[in-house]
Please model this.
Amino acid sequence: KNMTDPKAERTFIAIKPDGVQRGLIGDIIKRFEQKGYKLVAGKLMWAPKELLMNHYKDLADKPFYNGLVAYMASGPVFAMVWEGKAVVATGRKILGATNPLDSAPGTIRGDYCIDVGRNICHGSDAVETAQREIALWFKDDELNDYEFADKKWIY
Ligand code: RTP
Model:
């Protein structure tokens, strides 16, 4: 696979336990799917604390870190990998600002939540972060290499 192809950029998107409990898996998948991005991997997973602590290790000194890990461990998460041109930055636009009171209407967080501690979804913040997070949450053989039947309708 040619990883220098901009259309092969990948991001890690997770539907947090509140998003799963509130029945938003389908809607969130729909938004990435209808945009034209390609689903490369997806699984429902009750994440171990060690995985979550590693995932959020850069936030370990924040006052909300323990609560964040407890929230993420409170139920299953729907973990996904999405692929396409500029999917990291665009994925975060689809999610909306971290604090749902700042997220624009039309974004996932803007449409569905209020509290930064219950903000429904996660998206990688940079291409390098995405690579780290994908490797943390998925085995190589869980990442599906395939092409859309006819990409000319998207690119
Ligand atoms: P995410 O990783 O979840 O996409 O969020 P982010 O990069 O936009 O935000 P970041 O600052 O990395 O925070 C990660 C998650 O921690 C929770 N948080 N709580 N003040 C608080 O209580 C607070 N601040 C952040 C949020 O769930 C946020 O998504």
In short: The helical segments are 17-21, 25-35, 49-55, 65-72, 87-95, 108-112, 127-137. The CA atoms of residues 56 and 69 lie 8 Å apart. The longest strand covers residues 38-45.
